[in-house]
């Protein structure tokens, strides 16, 4: 349905989008804090850890204790570190997050049956744009590693390069597969086009490849070779301490939330709800976004749960998995998606 916006509202749209963007940044930061608590709480329940199980109601005060610890630690820097790279790496990591937020829809409201996506802006190639800017975080990781003047940090960064190069290819091919069947590279169009026929049912192989590649892209277990403490102390972040360490990991948690949004939008139907809800003047405003948030939290819990359920791969196993298994499966899914799209008349 075509969205008709009254003329007197048009000049206000940039201001509305700007305010929405600022609010969105705050909400995502709060969501990252929630993800930290969720991970610590789940791990504590699984492994009977004392801290998050006992500190405050549901372990909520553990976040306060962590914040006090990070803010009060001395800010140390290696003697021969490159100050320019070492001090500014977090800007690249958090900048990557902000650039992703610009084009990522976080829900939609339906007013009189008309859909209004909740996104700061819409681009015709938004899904490719999000994938591109998400890769900028690797520059921040390399800046930390190279600027630290530490061989373990540098080894972690090069492992990160090897992993990302291998997994960006199948990740990109699955995104193209979804776009080919939808006929659009706009992530809003992809979400809207799914209706009640989710892409996870139309492209189950593509969903599997995308999710595994996304896990590797985010560096979550079993793909955290760049910071494997048994081999590299803490890898790329070995020399970071205090809030530098906190901001680096905070950026990773935000990436995890945004990755969960991508899974929900590309494969789990996005915010689509049955017509009788979308056309309701009350439920149409709150239910679609709430439905999407529920899916995002579910994906987030799966990602967190896998950390405590699977062992870490060796780096050679990671490389083999990407080039010898996931890449052929991604190409097979692309052929299937194009064929299915032609059959459905897209």
TrEMBL record:
The organism of origin for this protein: Methanosarcina barkeri MS
Protein name in the entry: F(420)H(2) dehydrogenase subunit H
Primary location recorded for the protein, binned into one broad class: membrane
Record-annotated membrane-spanning stretches: 12-38, 91-114, 126-146, 167-188, 200-216, 253-271, 283-306, 326-345
Claim: Transmembrane is one of the keywords in the record: yes
Known EC number: 1.5.98.3
Family: Belongs to the complex I subunit 1 family.
Known partners and oligomeric status: The FPO complex is composed of at least 13 different subunits. FpoA, FpoH, FpoJ, FpoK, FpoL, FpoM and FpoN proteins constitute the membrane sector of the complex.
Lineage of source species: Archaea, Methanobacteriati, Methanobacteriota, Stenosarchaea group, Methanomicrobia
PANTHER family recorded: NADH DEHYDROGENASE SUBUNIT 1 (PTHR11432), NADH-UBIQUINONE OXIDOREDUCTASE CHAIN 1 (PTHR11432:SF3)
Function per UniProt: Component of the F(420)H(2) dehydrogenase (FPO complex) which is part of the energy-conserving F(420)H(2):heterodisulfide oxidoreductase system. The membrane-bound electron transfer system of the complex plays an important role in the metabolism of methylotrophic methanogens when the organisms grow on methanol or methylamines. Catalyzes the oxidation of methanophenazine to dihydromethanophenazine. It shuttles electrons from F(420)H(2), via FAD and iron-sulfur (Fe-S) centers, to methanophenazine (an electron carrier in the membrane).
Keywords, in A-Z order: Cell membrane, Membrane, Transmembrane, Transmembrane helix
GO CC entries: plasma membrane
HAMAP family noted in UniProt: NDH1_NuoH
One of the GO biological process terms: aerobic respiration
Record has Zinc as a keyword: no
GO molecular function: NADH dehydrogenase activity; reduced coenzyme F420 dehydrogenase activity
PROSITE patterns xrefs: COMPLEX1_ND1_1
Membrane topology: Multi-pass membrane protein
Cell compartment(s), UniProt: Cell membrane; Membrane
Enzymatic reactions: methanophenazine + reduced coenzyme F420-(gamma-L-Glu)(n) = dihydromethanophenazine + oxidized coenzyme F420-(gamma-L-Glu)(n) + H(+)
């Amino acid at each position: 349905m075509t969205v008709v916006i009254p003329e007197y509202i048009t000049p206000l749209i940039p201001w509305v989008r700007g305010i929405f963007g600022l609010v969105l940044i705050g909400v995502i930061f709060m969501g990252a804090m929630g993800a930290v608590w969720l991970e610590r709480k789940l791990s504590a329940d699984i492994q009977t850890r004392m801290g998050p199980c006992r500190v405050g109601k549901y372990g909520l005060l553990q976040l306060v204790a962590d914040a006090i610890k990070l803010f009060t630690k001395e800010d140390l820097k290696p003697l021969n570190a490159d100050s320019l790279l070492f001090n500014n790496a977090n800007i690249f990591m958090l900048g990557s997050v902000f650039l992703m937020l610009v084009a990522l829809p976080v829900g939609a409201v339906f007013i009189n049956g008309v859909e209004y996506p909740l996104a700061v802006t819409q681009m015709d190639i938004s899904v490719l744009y999000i994938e591109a800017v998400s890769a900028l975080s690797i520059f921040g990781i390399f800046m930390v590693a190279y600027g630290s003047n530490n061989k373990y940090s540098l080894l972690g960064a090069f492992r990160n390069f090897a992993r990302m190069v291998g997994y960006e290819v199948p990740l990109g091919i699955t995104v193209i597969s979804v776009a080919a069947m939808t006929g659009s590279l706009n992530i809003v169009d992809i979400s809207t086009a799914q209706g009640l026929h989710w892409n996870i049912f139309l492209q189950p192989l593509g969903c599997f490849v995308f999710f595994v590649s996304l896990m590797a892209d985010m560096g979550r277990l079993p793909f955290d070779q760049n910071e494997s403490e048994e081999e590299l102390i803490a890898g790329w972040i070995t020399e970071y301490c205090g809030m530098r360490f906190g901001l680096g990991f905070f950026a990773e948690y935000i990436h995890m939330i945004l990755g969960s949004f991508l899974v929900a939008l590309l494969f789990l139907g996005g915010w689509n709800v049955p017509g009788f809800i979308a056309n309701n003047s009350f439920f149409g405003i709150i239910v679609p976004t709430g439905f999407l948030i529920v899916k995002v939290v579910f994906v987030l819990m799966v990602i967190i749960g896998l950390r405590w359920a699977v062992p870490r791969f060796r780096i050679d196993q990671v490389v083999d998995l990407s080039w010898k298994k996931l890449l052929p499966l991604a190409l097979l899914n692309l052929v299937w998606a194009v064929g299915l799209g032609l059959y459905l008349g897209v």
